[in-house]
Write a structure and sequence with these properties.
InterPro entries: Phylloplanin-like. The structure is a single chain. By secondary structure, the protein is an alpha+beta fold. Helices cover 16% and strands 37% of the residues.
Length: 150
């Protein structure tokens, strides 16, 4: 009877210690990758007036903002309007992508007040085999001119 109790105590101790030991050997890191395209348009869609696709927004300053104004990370779009951010912050709560460069920079006929902004959507989650790295892929839901954002 006493040996059964001792066995159960050792079994419970082993079960409790195993996840802790595994966590020490394989730390879990979360890397969040955010990428997308920015167009020189108030809504990023086709121009309903003449059916032309909007031009891309090159060299635009991009910001990942969490909360009202807290900038977590920033980058600049390339010549094709593409951007990519990598942050090790997760979860990203109440975060949006904001194009800090005024829209009138890419087209003088567009507004200079307000900024393009987009919420984020989950694209994928990848688990690293044996590395403990979790890669979360996010993308913008769609940039829309927001007159309340500066």
């Amino acid at each position: 009877m006493a040996s059964a109790k001792i066995f159960l105590i050792f079994l419970l101790a082993a079960l409790i210690a195993t996840p802790a030991a595994f966590a020490i050997l394989v730390p879990t890191l979360v890397s969040t990758h955010i990428s997308g395209l920015v167009f020189c348009s108030v809504n990023g869609n086709l121009d309903v007036f003449n059916g032309l696709s909007p031009q891309v927004f090159p060299n635009a300053s991009m910001q990942l903002r969490c909360g009202a104004t807290n900038v977590i990370s920033s980058t600049i779009t390339n010549g094709s309007g593409a951007f990519s951010l990598v942050v090790n912050t997760f979860p990203l709560l109440n975060c949006n992508l904001v194009v800090a460069t005024p829209l009138s920079t890419c087209n003088a006929t567009l507004q200079s007040n307000g900024r393009l902004a987009s919420s984020l959507r989950l694209v994928n989650i990848t688990l690293g085999s044996g590395t403990g790295l979790i890669r979360v892929g996010l993308a913008p839901t769609g940039f829309i001119l927001n007159l309340n954002v500066n």
